[in-house]
């Protein structure tokens, strides 16, 4: 196997320092690293370049001379062009060393955004992120924090997120207080609640799970996240009295199984529509899953919610189970009938 150890400077810092890329070969890359670190001794790019040389030396011992090469390629400060420039320089490198696989080296997540583009040319067998160790003294820590805060505030790429969005939200909140419009405060509070919900999903792995399943269905992914948020808030408000949670009288609601049933079926419908637009086909399982979700929350959840309040209506529960089973069977029958009636659409 021929392996290319590739350091990618996706945002083009090396070019802005007047260094021409691509650079191929251990001696050339080592010379590049020394040249760059003399100009920018505080930049992590130089450390990552030296790390690429070290990885090259390690792989050469295992795979043999001639089976490993090291190279440095650059992208562009323009986010829209960065990956295209990286691929163009990678093509030049592969002309001189036709690798079977690439060992990707970077100094942070921004450079790793080029991995997917590079995989269109050669498989990436490993990704090595070089973390630069910093001094633990208070002075160095303060200096480092000040450096990154200045970068976050001044650079247009980050300024819109660190300054623009927070300032806009605070402006809306202050405006709502000044002109006494309560609805704006509610919207902002709901936005903060949704953000915390996203962080909670990310922390427990639900966000990654949904993203993995719905990788090709971006609209359905967004609809699923919003639906889960709406249902979670709805259940908390509906069960607040039973759980001892105090909420304003205006937000106190009685549980109605139709609301979560419909809200949770919406992502399934979105998945069916988005899938049909992509493949011109609809899976039979969509109808069965919709029947399962709708009937569970519409027929079975109401007696369970009543049980949380301390009174389980056994008759209502068994009726719900029977209706749930009947609706599920009906969903299966509908799926089978449609697959026979519309074989070119329903599979």
TrEMBL record:
* Stored Pfam families: DUF373
Q: Where are the transmembrane segments?
A: 161-181, 187-207, 219-243, 255-273, 285-305, 317-338
Keyword Transmembrane helix attached: yes
Q: Which domain of life is it from?
A: Archaea
Keywords for this entry? Membrane, Transmembrane, Transmembrane helix
UniProt KW Transmembrane helix keyword: yes
The name under which this protein is listed is: Multidrug ABC transporter permease
Native organism? Thermoproteus uzoniensis (strain 768-20)
């Amino acid at each position: 196997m021929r392996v290319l150890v590739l350091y990618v400077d996706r945002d083009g810092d090396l070019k802005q320092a007047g260094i021409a890329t691509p650079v191929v070969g251990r001696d050339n890359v080592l010379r590049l690293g020394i040249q760059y670190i003399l100009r920018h001794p505080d930049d992590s790019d130089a450390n990552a370049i030296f790390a690429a040389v070290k990885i090259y030396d390690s792989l050469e011992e295992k795979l043999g001379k001639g089976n490993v090469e090291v190279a440095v390629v650059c992208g562009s400060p323009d986010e829209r062009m960065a990956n295209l420039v990286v691929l163009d320089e990678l093509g030049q490198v592969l002309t001189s060393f036709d690798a079977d696989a690439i060992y990707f080296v970077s100094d942070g997540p921004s450079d790793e955004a080029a991995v997917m583009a590079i995989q269109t040319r050669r498989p990436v067998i490993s990704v090595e992120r070089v973390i630069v160790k910093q001094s633990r003294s208070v002075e160095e820590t303060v200096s480092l924090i000040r450096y990154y805060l200045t970068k976050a505030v001044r650079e247009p790429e980050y300024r819109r997120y660190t300054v623009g969005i927070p300032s806009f939200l605070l402006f809306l909140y202050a405006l709502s207080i000044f002109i006494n419009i309560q609805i704006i405060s509610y919207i902002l509070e709901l936005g903060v609640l949704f953000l915390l919900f996203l962080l909670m999903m990310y922390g427990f792995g639900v966000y990654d799970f949904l993203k993995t399943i719905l990788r090709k269905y971006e609209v359905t992914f967004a609809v699923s996240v919003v639906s889960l948020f709406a249902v979670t808030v709805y259940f908390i408000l509906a069960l607040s009295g039973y759980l001892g949670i105090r909420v304003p009288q205006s937000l106190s609601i009685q549980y109605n199984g139709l609301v979560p049933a419909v809200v949770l079926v919406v992502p399934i419908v979105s998945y069916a529509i988005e899938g049909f637009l992509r493949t011109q086909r609809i899976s039979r399982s969509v109808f069965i899953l919709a029947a399962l979700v709708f009937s569970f929350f519409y027929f079975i959840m109401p007696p369970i919610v009543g049980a949380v309040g301390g009174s389980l209506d056994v008759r209502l529960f068994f009726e719900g189970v029977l209706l749930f089973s009947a609706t599920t069977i009906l969903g299966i029958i509908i799926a089978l009938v449609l697959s026979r009636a519309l074989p070119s659409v329903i599979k």
